[in-house]
Amino acid sequence: MTGQGAEHFDVVVVGAGLSGVGAACRLRQKCPRKHFAILERRDAMGGTWDLFRYPGVRSDSDMYTLGYGFRPWRDAKAIADGPAILNYIRETAAEYGVDQKIRYGHRVRRASWSSADALWTVEAETETCIVQFTCNFLYLCTGYYDYESGYTPEWPGVERFGGRIVHPQKWPEDLDYAGKRVVVIGSGATAVTLVPALAGRAAHVTMLQRSPTYVVSMPSEDKVANRLRAHLPARAAYALTRWKNVLVGMFFYGLSRTRPLIMKRMIAKGIRRQLGEDYDLKHFTPQYNPWDQRLCLVPDSDLFRAIRGGRASVVTDHIESFTETGLLLRSGERLDADLIVTATGLVLKLMSGMQLVVDGVPLEIAKKIIFKGMMYSDVPNLAFAIGYTNASWTLKCDLTAEYVCRLLNHMDASGYDWCAPRRNDPSLTEEPIVNFTSGYVRRALDTLPRQGSRRPWRLYQNYALDLLTLRHSAIEDGTLEFGRATGRTTARWPSA
Q1: Res 389: pLDDT
Q2: How far apart are alpha carbons 91 and 394 in whole angstroms?
Q3: Which pLDDT score, from 0 to 100, does residue 4 have?
Q4: pLDDT for 58-92, tens place per residue?
Q5: 119-125 and 107-114: which strand pairing?
Q6: 456: cis peptide before it, omega within 30°?
Q7: Which one, 126, 150, 358, 492, has the greatest CB density within 10 A?
Q8: What is the percent of the chain where pLDDT is above 70?
Q9: Closest to 339 in 3D by CA, of 325, 319, 320, 321
Q10: Using CA atoms, how far apart are residues 464 and 1, in angstroms rounded to an integer?
């Protein structure tokens, strides 16, 4: 037997961030008899939205799609700041009573599956000891990056710099940047958020980038959504706005993939309108096509307004070395700085570094392929939440939560104890899990699972298609295998 004396749950959810709270709410709604717990490594819920405290932190997707499908976003702003999103998560958790299910300060280190018992034994580290739980189903909602630290390249001469260097993931509460010269290294979503936020108090902010990113402006308020909310019930207005934004996003993503030159011209025209005919567009003209990497969103043109007002500027160059007073660039230019912010990205880390073991064999995730974007091949009774790369994170996570509930109810109705996706198509070929060229993806590609060449092993990054597949398709689809516990190991799980 496994997990003798351990507290038992039907489902253990790992992570109390946006996706973990959403998963728990779906369990409440659709599997009301299931006994579950949420294990959260930190001392507060909210995940990303509680962790990141840098100035201006906000969503880079509209809240009508980043919000939960079952609970309307009611604020006027569609592009919301971090505190507003955190409050939304907390209110949702309280409304559905899942805040009472969270065990804080529980860092899951290992989960072991026993086929004989059809159980997972979950080991979590607290401040004082290692505790064990058992569960029939394990649901991982741990996000996709390392919460401990962000990515910082190694630069020559860093130790020589006389000012302060900070990473946005570890923003100090006592940091005073008023009246200081600030250099933000990076060109992604965090950098374009930080620059206008810092520019309000800093003497000047320079965004230093090795290469440009596509940046598009969007109103922080959705006028259509606000009008609908004024005339329709909240849920109806929310649903209509959600679908409007989903379809608009799908259209522009499709245009980017099929007619990239048109999309490039549209983006360039928008920037030219913001910054004027004399501005050098090289700083916002990447070498890659739109959506080869994620587009950066700026609400109400705040970045462009800071540049127009002379409070911020963009430099495209490489760092030769740090100096006592700032940075020496490859071109020979020097950037003086009192504060340098390394908005250089995240460290991609699935499952928060926890180890999975199946019948005594440690699992190598990189050798697995993913089923419907939510399960690993040959890994029983386990699902994970991961969002879209081309749309709001929550859209996919919410569909996954619905599917998990359907799956659990189907297993109960049919008397099954376990299920696992089986790779039974010999013609299936493997491909990288994503085709993004972003640095954080390329650095971690060898550690990630793979996708297959066709459904149900392929990621289509298409909400409408996933809606049909996950909400309406048959659970027993010829790929999922089901069975019952016998008290002895009879299932065969291919070794890693």
Answers
A1: 84
A2: 17
A3: 53
A4: 998 999 999 999 999 999 999 999 999 999 999 99
A5: antiparallel
A6: yes
A7: 358
A8: 95
A9: 325
A10: 43
The span from the CA of 332 to the CA of 317, in Å, is 10
Which pLDDT tens digit goes with each residue over 290-315? 988 889 999 999 999 999 999 999 99
pLDDT at 2: 47
CB environment 63-76: b (16+ within 10 A), e (fewer):
bbbbbbbbbbbeee
In sequence order, the 6+-apart residues with CB closer than 8 A to the CB of 24 are 13, 36, 38, 93, 96, 98, 101
pLDDT at residue 462 greater than cutoff 80: yes
Q: How does DSSP assign 201-214, residue by residue?
A: TSSEEEEEESS---
Helix (H, G, I), strand (E, B) or coil at 314: strand
DSSP code of residue 71: S
Within 10 angstroms of residue 277's Cβ, the number of other Cβ atoms is: 7
325-360 burial, b for 16+ CB within 10 Å, e for fewer? bbbbbeeeeebebbbbbbbbbbbbbbbbebebbbee
Length of the chain: 496
- CA 402 to centroid of chain Cα atoms: 18
How distant, in Å, are the alpha carbons of 25, 98, 384, 414 from that of 13?
11, 11, 9, 23
Q: Answer yes or no: is pLDDT of 488 > 70.
A: no
Q: What is the rounded average pLDDT of the residues 386-412?
A: 94
Q: What is the CA radius of gyration of the chain?
A: 24
Q: How far apart are CA 345 and CA 355, in angstroms?
A: 24
- Residue of 240, 218, 241, 213 lying closest to 59 (CA atoms): 218
Question: Which segments of 79-118 are extended strands (E)?
Answer: 102-104, 107-114
Three-state secondary-structure class, residue 110: strand
Dist. CA 478–CA 416, nearest whole Å: 15
Cβ neighbourhood burial of 470 (10 Å; 0-12, 13-18, 19+): buried
Closest CA to 422 of 471, 380, 359: 380
Per-residue pLDDT tens digits for 215-231: 999 999 999 999 999 99
Residue 451's beta-bridge partner residues? 431
The pTM of the full predicted model, rounded to 2 decimals, is: 0.92
In sequence order, the 6+-apart residues with CB closer than 8 A to the CB of 324 are 160, 161, 162
Q: Mind spelling out the 3-state secondary structure of 368-403?
A: CEEECCCEECCCCCEEECCCCCCCCHHHHHHHHHHH
Question: What number of CA atoms fall less than 13 Å from residue 281's CA on the CB side?
Answer: 17
| Alpha helices, H only, 99-222 | 189-199
Convert the pLDDT of each residue in 107-162 to its tens digit.
999 999 999 999 999 999 999 999 999 999 999 999 888 888 888 899 999 999 99
The burial class, CB within 10 Å (0-12 / 13-18 / 19+), for 240 is: middle
